[in-house]
Amino acid sequence: MSLKRFLKLMVIPVLGVMLCSSQGLADDDWDAILQERNFKIRIEAGRKMVDVSLKDLLGLALDRSLLLQDARKGEISAERSLEASQERNMPILSNSFEVGQTVNQGLPSIAVLLGLAPVPLASLTSTQATSLISSVRKQLTNGIQYGLTYAEVRTQSKSVTIADAGDTAAAGSYGDPLEYLGLTASVVIPFFQDWGEVNDIPVFLGQVGVKQAQAGTRMTQYQIIRAVASLYWDLVGLLETIKVQEEAVALTRRLLKDNKALYQVGLLSRSDIQATETQLARQRQELLSLRTAVLRMEDLVRTSLDLTVMDVGMVPSDVPRVREVEVTENLVTDRMYENDTNLEILNNNLEQLHYELLQVQNKEKTNLDLSLAYTMGGYSSSPLGGVNGFSDQETNGFNARLTWVVPLFDKSTPKQIQKVRLDLERVQLKIQNRRSELKIQLQSILRSLSLAREQVQTSRTAMEMADEQMQNTIRLLKQGKATSFQVSQAQQQASVARQQEIFSRVDFEKQFFEFLIITGDVFSYYQLENRNASISEVKNHEK
């Protein structure tokens, strides 16, 4: 792998994720943040440098990521929705107060009926009424609705007659007021449709929403730590490559000095000196490119941590190395299934569709309701006096009603049921596919770890052989048995071999990190705090 290609591969995949995570707060106190986490700060060449481990970097990223804060807000929003669905069956109290006057056609008087008085054009009854009605009703989770209604009505009436067309109405006086009190208890019992578990589906869907939000938070966490870890190990690879390049520059400088001495005694030609100078210039150029890449990488790391106020160099304290991985296939596979957020989201989708199917199937059931009501009424001429009449069965009433609704030619509900069932089958297929993908991914990671371990060993052997070959070529040059071109080639081969050894160790660390993520062991391995904070913890933090 060439150096330029390596620089491209390590920057491009994580740039987009890192830029999305930045808060861009200009008031951050860098020193306070660094000192709070016990980071070692030192000054090198007038620049502030910070020693950081991958554990510290992951913890800082999880604490400061805007994406993660947004995901946790989503959890709170889902919890609010769940709480709202749980309180959907609260008692409802309704009240009304009405004052009015009505005029209705009344019966003719006795004098008119006996022929003792002329028949009027109109015989009317004017009634003034004041009513107060208050009712409370509630629905249970099993679908039963019950309620209680209190009614108080006060009426006064008088007779009104109009003798002939165009005559003025003649009215008598209002009679004694009549007070009516009524107390009605009612209950509605659904049979088949709207009965039982179907009434709790809004709560079940709210619970699924909370689980989906939590799965989204975990997915965001893994995205953040995967990107940060990739940046970290790329930065480690760059810094170790710089050390190799600095050693190569120092070696070329010594070689150039020795070649100039050999040139003065006539053992080398001027072209040998120029070849060494060209090699030194090329190595310095590559060293400058590496240092520039380090600055870019540090910028990406600071962007991912939202530490954009001042330029602080990052010095990783972890060294890429080969680690032992013990795998019990069944145990790892079970942990992988439990930890995978995509699989969890699909399972939540399956559960949600199950509840949606119950809702649609409820519409297909027979809509049969039984309504029962009993009213106790009392009459009096004084306020509240009618209460005494509640015990009189002659003034009480009851009602029993059985209603059923039969939809004719309903083609919509069966189609909806078919659709939801097809969606269920699709999700089940996606779950099976995801399980297969995870198995293949696990096998691929384990195979990559094995190959990376072999690659590290092979690279180390090649590096040792290239170093030995370079030293031999330098000795032959001093003896006049080799040229500067041969030394340059040997030195370049040794440098490439060292870079390959570094890249192989970095690649092993990346593959090992993927193994920790897929098994869900990344938090415990790096001794990170439980970042899956519960909603209650987030609420307390906000307070």
Largest beta-sheet characterization: 7 strands, antiparallel
Mean pLDDT: 82
Helix/strand order, N-terminal first: HHEEHHEHEEEEHHEHHEEHHHH
Work out the radius of gyration.
43 Å
The residue fraction in helices comes out at 55-70%
Strand content: 15-25%
Structural class: alpha+beta
Low-confidence stretches: 1-28, 531-543
The beta-strand count equals 10
Describe it.
With 543 residues, the chain is an alpha+beta fold. 57% of the residues lie in helices and 19% in strands. It contains 13 helices and ten strands. The chain has helices spanning 3-20, 30-36, 54-64, 66-86, 110-113, 201-264, 270-305, 329-339, 341-364, 412-478, 484-519, 522-525, 535-542; strands at residues 40-44, 47-52, 92-105, 122-139, 145-162, 170-171, 178-192, 313-316, 367-380, 397-405. Strands 3, 4, 5, 6, 7, 9 and 10 form a seven-stranded antiparallel β-sheet that branches. Strand 5 (145-162) and strand 6 (170-171) form a beta hairpin. Helix 1 packs parallel to helix 7, helix 3 packs across helix 6 (201-264) and helix 4 runs antiparallel to helix 6. It is elongated, with a radius of gyration of 43 Å. The relative contact order is 0.13. Mean pLDDT is 82; it is low at 1-28 and 531-543.
